[in-house]
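Hey, resending since the last one bounced:
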Amino acid sequence: MEQSESPHRYLTPERIMIRDTAREFTMNEVLPVANALDPLQGEIPLALRDKLADMGYFGIRIPEQYGGSGLGVFEYCLVCEQLARGWMSVASIVARGNGTMTMSLLDEARRAQMMPRVVRGEYLGAMSLSEPDTGSDLASISCRAERDGDDWVITGNKYWCTFADGADYILLFARTAPPPDANKRHIGISAFLIDKPRGSLPAGVQGAEIPKIGYFGWKTFELAFDHFRVPASAMIGAEGKAFYALAQGLDEARAHTAARSIGLAQGALEDALAYAQERQQFGRPIAEFQDLRFKLARMATDIEAARQLLYYVCDRIDSGERCDKEASMVKYFASEMAERVTSDALQIFGGAGYTKLYAVERYWRDARLTKIFEGTSEIQLRIISDNLLGKPGH
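The structure tokens again:
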């Protein structure tokens, strides 16, 4: 489906080229792999990861001095929308290289050493933050790290650590000091960069794969750290202040999730449009039935509304403006839209949509996750309402 090429405040010729190049790459390289491997719950092939590196997609947000493109959140989301149109996991794995949060925790010497490898796709990370009893309330993590001579000793369980086996390092957040009081629970959390062999968990760390209903292409783990030792140099950033790096990266992360949501919905819409013109019932294509035509019209409108809101949010982030409310709005709106649109697309396919013979079921399953990760829809509504009304008195 062609997108508008009319003059636009946001879509400069350079950005149109970036978008269209990413779409061509997705349709030729990502989509065929996703169609072949997702039904089998297969993993993103290393060959495809190498192609992503060759395209520069692991370094979109990394400064040119380290070999990256030095581009903004806008360009990053343009690319990730297209990649998600093929396979959401591929649009997510590029974030394992573009992590500006990791950069903010590193000193200059480590940036200069690490970032060129990240751009080449040789040093990708996995985030270890959530815990079995800690999801949205990230300030209440209980995994702890205690100093013992020249080491830190980490004890506790982590959950939802995607790519823990395939990554080259794990970025783990643990409590190194108790919070000063109940209103400052975010203080005392530190970050640790744990190097590991690609293809396995760190030696001494136990892991159990979590059986997911979607988001295939890579595995997600529960990890158990039992007096796991790391050198003092594994801590990055200021001790006890890592939560601030998390908070600073939330706007970009939520924009990224919105872009992925839009890509999923776009893929479902395009497939539904094609199927509706091919499928014959009662002697004519089902695309001639008014209710179905109106459904497609609503789907297309919802997608474009989310996309334009995303452009606005990305522009504000790149301009350095605070936009936590707007970032929550686009994450909420786009993820809710994606579940609705992909479900409508599956309905257009009828019984065929409830099979693995068509990609629409993949878009539908993956869209459901976008309402949960990077802050649930309910968390986004809380942020938006607190911005509008102030926080509740209690």
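The first strand starts at residue 125 and ends at 128.

Sorry for the duplicate.
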